[in-house]
Amino acid sequence: MNPVPQAPILEVEALGRRFGAFTALEDVSAVFGKERITAIIGPNGAGKSTLFNLLSGALAPTAGRLRFGGRDMTRVPQARFAHLGIARSYQITNVFPRLTAHENLRTAMQARASRYDFWSRRDALSGLAERADALLADIGLAGRRDRPAASLAHGEQRALEIGIALASDPKLLLLDEPTAGMGPEETKEMVALLRRLGETRTILLVEHKMKMILGLSERILVLHHGRLIADGSPAEIQADREVRRVYLGQSGGYGHA
Amino acid sequence: MQTLDQTVVDAPPGAVKPQRAPRVTAGFSRWRAPLSILALLTLPFLLPSQALAVNVLIYGLYAVGYNLLYGYTGLLSFGHAAFFGTGAYVTGIAIGAYGLHPLLAMGLGTVAASALALTVGAVSIRSRGIYFAMVTLALAQLVYYAALQASSWTGGENGLRGFTVSRIGLGPVSLDILDPQVKYLFVLAFVGAALALISRILASPFGAAIEAIRENETRARACGFDVERSKLLAFVLSGLFCGLSGALSAIHLSIVPLDSLAYHTSGMAVVMTLVGGAGTFFGPFVGALVVLVLEDVFSLWTPHWQLALGTVFILFVLFLPRGLWGSALERLSFRRGQS
Amino acid sequence: MTSAFAALDLELIAMQLFSGVALGAVFVMLALGLSIIFGMLGIVNFAHGNFFMVGAYAGVFVMERTGSFWAALLVGPLMVGALGLLVERFLIRPLAGRSPDDPLLLTFGLGYVLVEGVRILFGSDGLPFATPEELSGVADLGIGYFPIYRLFVVGVVALVLVVLWYGLERTRLGLIVRAGARDPEILRVLGIDIQRLWLWVFGLGIALAALGGVLAAPMRSVNPEMGNVVLGEAFAVTVIGGMGSLMGSVVAGLLVGIVVSMTALVAPEMASIAMFAFMALVLLIRPQGLFGKPGLGV
């Protein structure tokens, strides 16, 4: 178990992204590392997905810089992000549908170990199968080992989704609405899982469920119209005037913004 | 999921029963190459002519090579004739014009096809989705016209002739390739080796990587797979095996028709793979068998046998998209799950 | 002496340039149909070249019956367009919701059926298609003499483009088509019957291909295999222009026509290779094509 690093793990410097004439994200700066779980909130279209895509390397920034563990990531291709220790999950379940749960995880783990080996047997690869089994148990899917991902229940697919992100044993975990579409019971289980994961790594998550965020995260970032309008502890964010204005203007309060 | 095939399951939640079934069939994958070779050994006894049996071997390998790209990596190419034809032409030219040993010539043909695949792949891999089919088709047309124009090398419209191989010397032994049985075993030796190799590739970590890309390209990239390089590598491997099948066809026919580079030949790879079952190990052979026997039978009655071919193909797309072998395997694993 | 040669060369180049435009006009017809169908239905029609070929044969058929080229030009494409409607309704529509590869594969199989169907009805050998008398001969355009028929082809294609442009930009239906090409979801929200729209768009695309076939018939030989040759050319043009872009189809069509005929002037044996090499070049520099949006992939 590696302790949560005290030095900044992720440094974001005046980050921005434009799509043609449209500016999706502008001048976002923040340093992450001390807090275990940080939530990013904001109304729809605030730039949360764009920020996530930039942090995970799916998009290249058009302005600013991104540093991970002291290393400049601004022009690094996406596949390298995973190798260096950043992994993400998706809002819409994004698994390998026809592979079994076990094979989903084993394949994701393999992406870091071996990609162009076409001679050895994949299931004999240095303990990956066992590690996949252990991870399967971790996310509560041991009983679903050999079922194709497409045949799992929604909550199980969400867990597998996060399992795939965990497979590369990332230092930084980016979770896009991990509880999307979940009922209260499933949400509770997910929150417990996130708490456990936060003990050993830095987690950034996008969420809409305000109550859950306030209880779970140590720090909250608020995006609005592509800009960072607030950054602080849950208590500070709740007291923030600008944030209240944005949210009250949107839907009349917390809850489902 | 390492069954004999890539069993296809996208049923609604709870509909899939076989909790342990894939583990039962997992051992199958180790035996799929030897089993396939055994099945192919029986072909000459089942088919009316040795020539037809050799054709099934050659086109089956061609379709298997194609399936590596379409069935396992999920890339729909319509230009694989370029690799089949290049393998055949280079083999024929090396024997006819330079008097190379047939085995050496075949090796040269296979290497040439792989090199071409590297070039075509580098241009076409960057175009995604449905674009890819169009680009590969157009690039194959380029190769076709180039061969047509370079008639002093290729014989142009008349095809490449004058390199008949009757005996192949292997050290002290000399194979009489005109003997139908010897020829069949000679071709099967190459096809069998190729199948063993492909089975190994599919069971390897690289095999898992291309399956992941087929299943979900975005996620595979996020997991840390270099999608473009893996695709290119799959493309080259696919071109290699298709080139080998072309080289075998040159030895078999002692002529390389210009048609082996044509759109129709590219289409044959698609038809055979789909009719047999894309993404299954043995399916492409089943497809090649069915299509070639259909041709053999129908062309006795009518010159318009391609009407039947087109109609059958349309029916497969509409009603049996997993192909004959794919559907049979699916039924098999479903029943095993129930019992 | 030298100036006379220069003048001759210039005239020759002008001639070739114009031939290129006429050739390109036919490519424009093909690429437009492909692009409209792709833009709306998300389908790559692999039978497109074969519908072009069927169009040429429909032209032959009508001309034999009526003796009128004008009837052939009008009725031929309508007949083939109607066939396109049937194909959409009974073969393509059942594939809704499946992988985008499936309609592609189906139309590929349909290509075989169309080729063999024509062979059965009209024989395997090519047919002559004479240039209509009122359009034969040459016209003096000041810079040189040009075949009237080629001028006519360019004129017809220009007319079709104007009508299409008007239909797309100035009518309600055009508005719907444009909106739908950008985001089919909008149409669902507006309560528009997408299936019917798709049906007619497919029919229109096929009719355009067939019109191209009739127009090209006097310039190319009419035979059952012509469609497969044309398919590769149409794809090269569409890839160069950018899939789904109508502007791209027009520009790339003319450009490719000119590239091919100019190559024919310099190195005739390279003419058939030129357009594909040109496509490869464009792909290396701009993978999405000249007018295509980046990141397009289904």
In short:
The complex is a heterotrimer of chains A (257), B (339) and C (298). Chain A is of the alpha/beta class.
What would your notes on this structure say?
- The complex is a heterotrimer of chains A (257), B (339) and C (298).
- Chain A has 257 residues and is α/β, with parallel strands linked by helices.
- Chain A contains 9 helices and 10 strands.
- Chain A has one domain (10-251): Rossmann fold, CATH 3.40.50.300.
- The model of chain A is unreliable at 251-257 (pLDDT under 50).
- Chain B is 72% helix and 2% strand.
- Chain B has a two-stranded antiparallel ribbon.
- The longest helix of chain B has 27 residues, at 227-253.
- In chain C, 50% of the residues are buried.
- By secondary structure, chain C is an all-alpha fold.
- In chain C, helix 2 packs parallel to helix 4 and helix 5 (148-170) crosses helix 6.
- Classes of the chains: A alpha/beta (257), B mainly alpha (339), C mainly alpha (298).
- Chains in contact: A-B, B-C.
- At the B-C interface, helix 7, helix 13 and helix 15 of B face helix 4, helix 9 and helix 11 of C.
- Chain C: Its main location: membrane.
- Chain C: Pfam families: BPD_transp_2.
- Chain C: It is a multi-pass membrane protein.
- Chain C: It is found in: Cell membrane.
Shape of chain C: globular
Q: Give the tally of structural domains of chain C.
A: 2
Query: What is the topology, as strand order, of the major beta sheet of chain B?
Result: 1-2
Mean of all residue-level pLDDT scores of chain B = 89
The description of the largest β-sheet of chain B is: 2 strands, antiparallel
Q: Uncertain spans of chain C, ≥5 residues at pLDDT below 50?
A: none
Mean pLDDT of chain C: 89
Order of helical and strand elements of chain B: HHHHHHHHEEHHHHHHHH
| Order of neighbouring strands in the sheet with most strands of chain C | 1-2
Fraction of helical residues of chain B: over 70%
> What share of the residues of chain B does DSSP label as strand, in percent?
under 5%
Number of H- or I-type helical stretches of chain C: 11
Give the low-confidence spans of chain B.
Answer: 1-26
Helix content of chain C: over 70%
Largest interface: A-B, 49 and 44 residues
Overall form of chain B = globular
User: How many DSSP helices of chain B?
Assistant: 16
Overall strand count of chain C: 2
Distance between the termini of chain C: 59 Å
Order of helices and strands of chain C: HHHHEEHHHHHHH
Using DSSP, what is the number of strands of chain B?
2
